[in-house]
Amino acid sequence: MKACGIIAEYNPFHNGHLYQLEEAKKRTGAEVIIVVMSGNFLQRGEPAIVDKWKRAKMALAGGADLILELPVSYSVQPADLFAKGAIEILAGLGCASLSFGAESGNGETFKKAAKLLIEYSEDIDDQFKKQNEKGKPYAVRMEQAIAAVIPSFPINLSKPNNQLGLAYAKENYYHGDRFHFEVIGRKQAEYHDVNLSENTTIASATAIRKQLLNPLNVQNSSQAFMPATSLELLNQSQLINWNNYWRLLKYQILSSSLKELQQIYQMEEGLEYRLKKAVQSADSFERFIQTVKNKRMTRTRLQRLCVYVLLQIKHSDLAALNQMPTSRILGFSPLGQQYLSEVKKSSSVNLLTKINKLTKDNWSLDIKAGEVYQLALDNVKLKQDFNRKPLNIIDITTGD
């Protein structure tokens, strides 16, 4: 069976995602769509608006055939490591194609750009080190270094989906160019658009979340932009954002010594001192972030650091990123189940169907992430990980 892979967060699953799934299947001729989806904490350092099981249900209802969880050790990471984890899972499951959304370019453009980056990596690093504008964020400085070394670089790196697409292309290069790339152009809405338009049924996830989390959004003005299953699940759910974890995060920072904070993953450049100082006066997560961030320290980097603090992820916890990838099976269609049975023996991915006493050691960091995620929920019916079976599209209902 021919499989096409998609790397996603579905926060939440909306009409744009539905369009991508349909186009990916049509353009690649794939019989099976495999989605590697972030769990309860996401790439830009945010908790998901609803948990991974509800988002997996949305995706299955939208036409995905197999949903695999990207572990938190990769899901809350800069683009290169996020891509590394997801690509290794898809490659290990024998996917022939990879489809992703981008603001511009096609598959060959991204492959060409990745090859250029790798071939000129030493020159780019040298140019990066020569820069005097130390106050700028890492991403901006790197973009300037690339432009200086490769003036006609074919990808616009100021666009977030282009950045992720390029990270996928680099990983694909390291895997021997095994994937056919099918790039789906963003339709009608940009990644960071924060407003909903009355003239379309496609909007960015950012704009949809903004409306869903708005306490004045009584009429749910985002309903035109999502499939029925997504709407139903969201309407039945407590919606989550960083505000739900502010007191927990504040407690972690206040109760930890500077030495303990220094052990947190990505705690660099004396950030522990800034966190300690800012948390004393901040009365909300937003105020805290605004106090700590500066020109060099972007909001996204800080939010990721806050996830590491919240989950108490230390440098030592992520020392094994180069080992055989492990992924949790969240759900499947009959075709997805059939594909799993065909490739499971030859797969280089450690696939987990159930978390119990025998398998928990392979998923310990994600078990903790699920338990912390649920601390914000008022009504917890099931654990996020222990003894939960993969969802089957045939049995899916809108309840837990």
Automatic annotation (TrEMBL):
Keyword Oxidoreductase assigned: no
InterPro entries for the chain: Rossmann-like_a/b/a_fold, tRNA(Met)_cyd_acetate_ligase
Binding site for ATP: 7-20, 101, 161, 186
GO cellular component term of the entry, any: cytoplasm
Recorded superkingdom: Bacteria
Keywords, alphabetical: ATP-binding, Cytoplasm, Ligase, Nucleotide-binding, RNA-binding, Transferase, tRNA processing, tRNA-binding
EC number: 6.3.4.-
Cross-referenced Pfam families: HIGH_NTase1
GO-annotated biological processes: tRNA modification
Catalytic activity: cytidine(34) in elongator tRNA(Met) + acetate + ATP = N(4)-acetylcytidine(34) in elongator tRNA(Met) + AMP + diphosphate
Family annotation (PANTHER family): TRNA(MET) CYTIDINE ACETATE LIGASE (PTHR37825:SF1)
Function: Catalyzes the formation of N(4)-acetylcytidine (ac(4)C) at the wobble position of elongator tRNA(Met), using acetate and ATP as substrates. First activates an acetate ion to form acetyladenylate (Ac-AMP) and then transfers the acetyl group to tRNA to form ac(4)C34.
Protein name in the entry: tRNA(Met) cytidine acetate ligase
Organism listed in the record: Marinilactibacillus piezotolerans
Taxon lineage: Bacteria, Bacillati, Bacillota, Bacilli, Lactobacillales
